[in-house]
Design goal:
378 residues; alpha/beta; Rossmann fold; globular; MeTrfase_capping; methyltransferase; metal-binding; transferase
């Protein structure tokens, strides 16, 4: 069996999306963690927009894009925060003229764009009410743009501001591997060196491609703020970025041992993700050459997807583990389902949730965020 070919045939554009709808395991109902990250990085966004607005001499139109927008409450939250940030910047500079704002929402075609569009009228009404209460009005237009951000998406020199949060760690494809990543579904301490190398090279290729196309689409002095799930360590197999997939691999290996999943199926499954270090992000931005780094920061967020109020320690650990399990199912289920099939999916994620709960009861774990704010060179 040609494992590498099997992996290459996996159409990432078709299966790499969050769980759609509003069910118990939907991304819409399990994205509080991502919401926290958006809130944490807001000061960096505000700073970038302030500098942009000043550099462009108070433009009458602002064209923005949210790349990897997904669906659910976070999508239009980002749009709302961008518009309100522009309003506050206008106040700061004493500019009474409201710019027209176009916001493009981008994700892969299988994203739940219908859910977004159904929420736009409510978004506009809420935004209008807030702006009217502040004696202001900034026309805001929302458009969906399906497609991979590893391709050209927009007109040349049309974008003023680009934003992306928790999307660029997803690769354009599963890395092409010359060795089997046996017993693993991601980089691990037991992965062959060639597997680690393949993942690193795929990230470098993809991120460089992303920067190249955004450089073509952005105006001179345009700003871009990217938050990527990453790591602090220089070791790509460090626990801080690999443990969550190790727990899923452990669940799958147990099912292989029990004859519920074929070993060959496990050995041909790898997650198309790479969590870079700040050094790697800096290196790729500088190597591509179209952008100047304004800020490069690392932050941490607790891995539990909710906070347990009025719970004792044991209850809180159970709730946190359960919710983190649902969060990961919302993210990973389409990938797992496409490879292993529907008959095993509930059992896989039942065991995965138990492993997460057990791990979180032993030690507090955090996600590492790498945020880079860059300026398009003239």
């Amino acid at each position: 069996m040609d494992v590498a070919q099997c992996e290459r045939d996996m159409d990432i554009a078709q299966v790499l999306h969050m769980n759609v709808g509003d069910g118990d395991y939907s991304y819409s109902n399990n994205s509080l963690l991502q919401r926290k990250v958006i809130s944490m990085t807001k000061p960096i966004i505000d700073d970038a927009l302030t500098n942009l607005y000043s550099a462009l001499n108070f433009p009458k139109t602002l064209i923005m894009a949210d790349l990897g927008c997904s669906s659910g409450p976070n999508t239009l939250l980002v749009a709302s925060e961008l518009v309100k940030s522009v309003y506050k910047i206008r106040q700061k500079f004493g500019n009474d003229e409201s710019p027209e704002i176009q916001i493009y929402l981008n994700d892969l075609p299988q994203n739940d764009f219908n859910a977004i569009f159904l929420s736009v009228s409510k978004f506009r009404k809420n935004l209008t009410n807030q702006m009217v209460s502040n004696n202001s009005s900034s026309p805001c237009y929302i458009s969906g743009v399906p497609g991979s951000f590893y391709t050209r998406l927009f007109l040349r020199k049309s974008l003023h501001f680009v934003y992306s949060s928790y999307s660029l760690m997803w690769l354009s494809q599963v890395p092409e591997m010359i060795d089997i990543n046996k017993g693993n579904i991601y980089m691990s301490t037991t992965s062959p060196p060639s597997v680690i190398k393949a993942y690193c090279e795929q990230f470098q290729k993809d991120f460089s491609t992303f920067l190249k196309f955004r450089a073509e689409e952005m105006v001179s002095e345009g700003r871009m703020v990217l938050t990527i799930l990453g790591r602090q360590s220089d070791d790509p197999c460090s626990k801080e970025c690999c443990y969550i997939w190790d727990l899923l691999a452990s669940s799958l290996k147990d099912m292989v041992a029990e004859g519920l999943i074929e070993e060959e199926k496990l050995d041909s499954f790898n997650i198309p993700q790479y969590t870079p270090s700040p050094k790697e992000v800096r290196n790729e931005v500088e190597k591509e050459g179209s952008f100047m780094i304004d800020r490069l920061e690392v932050s941490e967020v607790n891995c539990d997807a909710s906070t347990g109020n009025n719970l004792n320690l044991s209850e809180e650990e159970d709730v946190q583990g359960y919710n983190m399990g649902k969060c990961m199912r919302a993210v990973a289920e389409p990938l797992v389902l496409s490879h292993f099939g529907e008959s095993t999916i509930d059992e896989v994620f039942k065991r995965y949730a138990e492993n997460i709960k057990s791990s979180m009861s032993r030690e507090k774990t955090k996600h590492i965020n790498v945020t880079v704010s860059v300026i398009r060179k003239g």
